[in-house]
Amino acid sequence: MARADGPRTANGPRTGGGPRADGPGTGDEGPVGGSGRRFAPWLPGVLIVGGVAFDLSTPPPYTAAPFLAAAPLIAAPLHPLRLTALAGALAVAASCLLAEFHGVRDWAQSATEIATVVTVALLALLINRIVRRGSKRLASARGIAEAAQRAVLPVPPARLAGLDVAARYVAAERDAAIGGDLYAVQDTPHGVRMVIGDVRGKGLGSVEVVAIVIGAFREAAEQEATLEGLTLRLERALQRERARRADIEQAEGFITAVLAEIPRGDSQLRMINRGHPAPLLLDGEGAVRQADPEVPALPLGMGDLGAWPDRVEELPFAEGVTLLLFTDGVSEARDAQGTFYDPAVRLRGRRFAGPVELLDALVADVERHTGGGTADDMALLALRRAPVAPGVDRGR
What we know:
Blueprint: H1 34-39, H2 43-57, H3 65-78, H4 81-102, H5 107-152, E1 159-160, E2 163-170, E3 181-188, E4 191-199, H6 204-223, H7 227-244, E5 255-262, E6 268-274, E7 280-282, E8 288-290, E9 313-316, E10 322-326, H8 328-331, H9 343-347, H10 355-370, E11 378-385
Antiparallel strand pairs: 1-2, 2-11, 3-4, 4-5, 5-6, 6-9, 7-8, 7-10, 10-11
């Protein structure tokens, strides 16, 4: 059944240990890179064909058993159960046929090699079921996370009270859809109001705080006549929830945030900055202005440390100007040398067709700067006062 002139291995005389595979380890993601992902599904077949060729072209002390055993093991995370079983059956058949082709000299050695391939093939079937079950659970968790994101951070309308609007949320964790950053924009009787913020905390606690702030903003934005009153309502909502729930830690009880409003029919932008990265104003000619607050202020939820009246900053917001708000996942993104990303510098001199194109370009540029991915979530919100043709009513 086999060429059995002594213990053998794919790299010389067998010294013990199981077969080694350098393919994907777990999951269904495949090797890194586009070409690797395209090649990975074919790897089990390549191992079987390569193992047979190796066995036929090498001296008797060498065997294809490691290649044949690795084939179903590689197929398990890459293919469904049927193709994994097919890879195992082909590997076992190839092992038996090679043994028969070379003749039987050592029944025990030949039987051991075939049994090894059979055992690994059966283990591959078990691994396939475990991986597929885990993939279904992960897909379910992703679906729940995406539904939660749509509920807590719904996508704003592309056009709102004469403004072009776009928003993005980029989670730092690959499989996460929502974290501790937030944004909201709403058309109200007092104009278009918006908030962007970053919860100081991680995990489910930060998500709960996001839900609290967004809920309070949705209600107060309609009711409060001033931006100062809206900010105070968010402050009280955080303090009330922290007093009610002892499990919300102090680190997850405050938020850096910018609240802004664009009154209807007015070319002014009014903002309150509570310890958040300064927004940017981009005109149609590529100029970028950083809207730094004149007086620094504490984040929301830190009213216990002291009470200071909120200071509203007023800035001109002419037609064709875009307001860009973002969280520190953008401004604190670093490259391999540790250099921070500076959106004001990177965007200066560039022109964009609208807010959607601006955010697409910004996210792509941050990824290039960091080499792919960021260490923190990114929330981005962009609004442009679009030029209006004569005689057209902006309306709600």
